[in-house]
Please model this.
Amino acid sequence: MQKKYTLFLLIFVISIGAVTAQEYNNDELPEELKLTRQDSTIISSNMLGLGFNMIMDTGERLNKFPGGSDDWHAVPYPSRVSFGRNFKGGLAAEGIVAVNRFMEGKLVEKVELSEDRSYFSIDSRLSYNINRLFGRTGWFDPYVGAGLGYTSIEGEGAGTYNGVIGIRAWLSERWGVDVNSSGKWSMGNEGLVTNHMQHAAGVVYQFNIKKGWSKKGLEKIRLIEEYLREQKRLQDSITAAELAEEQARRLAEQLEREKEAAELAAAEKAREEAERQLKENIRQKLDDAGFAYFGFDSSYLTSGAKEVLDLVADFLNEYPSVTLNITAHADSRGTEQYNQWLSERRAERTLKYLFDKGISTDRINAEGKGETELRNDCGDGVPCPESKHSENRRSQFLVIKF
Model:
């Protein structure tokens, strides 16, 4: 039975005819009237595919679509080849050969396999390109189809009724990617060959392409004919007409270039303004959090300082690309060396609190500034109240990377 089905597929493949593609082009035509590939559409072609397939036991009702990785059976090499023909109107006929293996240790028909089982299938199918319902075929072609097949497991074979859904994504006119899923219902549903699914993914190559004009192309042809008739009628003044056409073309190109330059400049200005505004908003939100203040001669975080650092942590979580620099400071009371040490301790405790909040170490760094960056005039020898000194005992935050 398997040999007969292989012979049937071979006859099917050989019988698919080849046609050639044609593209009209005339260098004497104006640029806007030249026919290009965009003015045509593929109406028929041959397809050759190579890829991988995964099979999955589904039970009698075929109710496990699409299944999980524990249900799939696959081999680690290309295991599926197809050949087909796309016809005008969206129909396609294909022949497909696949090999695979049901894997030892996985469930098939609710029974764990004690050893691998070889799998072979040969299928024919007729599918329809759904895009044809809405217009010309584009680069993304979903399709549905049905067909008949033959499946052999460990040499035991049975016919199958098949249904398929899939998509083809065309990377170029000739090369594409095909991903599809087929449901296979056994004609007998007895023995080893039961209902199952077969998922497939691979590349397809399109050749023997035949094209036809799109609606846009037909409209261009009509305009070309009008143009040629007009050119014949205006032979006596052809030189003047060509000069006027050339001037109009150059003017149109110049205006287009000026328009594009103005649009690009406006877009760049808008982008820069939006980026500036975003950065300003980010900075303002960080500034709104305020400073983390410390007690006199202390590096321990107060409750108020922790509330500020919680806001900073929320800010960093909201803007995951932002990097901060933290500077810790001391007031002027005490020696310069001691105040430098104290500010470094404050920087360390500020960092540790944020790290404990889950902030990544590569997003914040900190340094102690001692008494070198006071926020007021309360330097050494200047009498100031405690309220003024407290303004200088702080950790403050600066965005260094957006």
